[in-house]
Amino acid sequence: MIIKPELVKKVKSYFDLNIYETKVWLALLSKGISSAGEIAELSGVPRSRTYDVLESLEKQGFALAKIGKPVKYIAVKPEVVIEKLKSNIVKNADEKVKMLGEMKRTKEFTELEELHKTGFSPIKQSEMSGTLRGKLNVYSHIREMLENAEKEVIICMSAQELENKSRIFTGLFEKLKKAGINVKIALSGSEDEVKKISNKLKIKAEKIDINAKFFIADRKQIMFIVNNLGEEEELGIWLNSEFFSNSLAYLFDNAVRK
User: Fold this and answer.
1) Residue 128 has what pLDDT?
2) How far apart are CA 217 and CA 206, in angstroms?
3) Is residue 50 part of a domain?
4) Are residues 156 and 69 in the same domain?
5) Both 64 and 132 in a single domain?
6) 156 close to 252: Cβ distance less than 8 angstroms
7) Tens digit of pLDDT for each residue in 92-124?
8) How far is residue 81's CA from residue 75's CA, in Å, rounded to a whole number?
9) Are 147 and 246 in contact (CB under 8 A)?
10) pTM value?
11) Are residues 221 and 134 in the same domain?
12) Are 159 and 44 contained in the same domain?
């Protein structure tokens, strides 16, 4: 049996298998049911390793061991494997989230907080800046920054991008309103787009003809988004500068009033 290298590469990546597991599973799929010796010959995996690999695949749900001698293995249908892996991932993720949530109540978490506080105490506010790469990291920081605002939040972006990220901002806007935070939003795009997203999120947004994306919290912190790197490669530039944030907020107010 000739297995295409590209298929091996893709299957290895999709199913998070090592190279031997991938070759053995593909060989087993091509036979349906087979002994370790036959699989070793078909896959090109050393016979001494094939037994361990088949046991590993059995534990992961890719194969079943048939009762009898010699021991033979049965390939599990790919669709069944995918559904089982999806369930396992969700279960593991839920357990991880629960564990991390419970960690906040531990002595170790208190020690981590103290270490962070100690490390940042001698640092000047003007030195607090940085870059964040990746959509998840960027928007997690934006959410934290805006949720911790005490008086005012300024948001400038396109109506289309706010529409695409409405899942993130819907709950955030509700929290800010309940906390009595003054929320100022300016969106680029057509009148219809701005009106549509304003109605959807129940916010008051001004139309602005500026192609920019930034977020300001209390005129002290600002996050710029460099949005020409692709959806997954978004780059955020964060500055904890009251002088700069206040200056940009002033320009924002003037632009919106025009």
Assistant:
1) 55
2) 18
3) yes
4) no
5) no
6) yes
7) 888 888 888 888 888 888 888 777 666 555 544
8) 10
9) no
10) 0.56
11) yes
12) no
Residue pair 216/251 in contact by the 8 Å Cβ criterion: no
The pairs formed by 123-131 with CB atoms below 8 angstroms and a separation of 24 or more are: 125/240, 125/241, 125/242, 126/240, 126/241, 128/239, 128/240, 129/237, 129/238, 129/239, 129/240, 129/241, 130/238, 131/235, 131/236, 131/237, 131/238
Q: How many CB atoms lie within 10 A of CB 110?
A: 11
Confidence of residue 1 (pLDDT cuts 50, 70, 90): low
Question: Based on the domain organization, do 136 and 245 belong to the same domain?
Answer: yes
The pLDDT of residue 126 is above 50: no
Pairing of strands 129-133, 152-158: unpaired
User: Which CATH number does the domain housing residue 40 bear?
Assistant: 1.10.10.10
Instruction: Specify whether the CB–CB gap between 154 and 216 falls below 8 A.
Output: yes
Token pair recorded at residue 203: 């916010």
Instruction: Note down the domain range covering 135.
Output: 127-257
Q: Is residue 100 part of a domain?
A: no
Query: Looking at per-residue confidence, does 124 or 161 come out higher?
Result: 161
* Owner of token pair 């680029």: 188
Q: What is the pLDDT of residue 227?
A: 64
Beta strand 205-207 pairing with 152-158: unpaired
Distance CA 62, CA 88 (A): 13
Q: What is the DSSP letter of 193?
A: H
Regarding whether 133 and 56 lie in a shared domain, the answer is no
pLDDT the model gives residue 152 = 94
Q: For residue 258, what pLDDT band results from cuts at 50, 70 and 90?
A: low
Spatial contact of 165 and 197, defined as CB atoms under 8 Å apart: no
The residue with greater pLDDT, 235 or 230, is: 235
Residues 149 and 231 in one domain: yes
User: To the nearest whole number, what is the mean pLDDT of the chain?
Assistant: 85
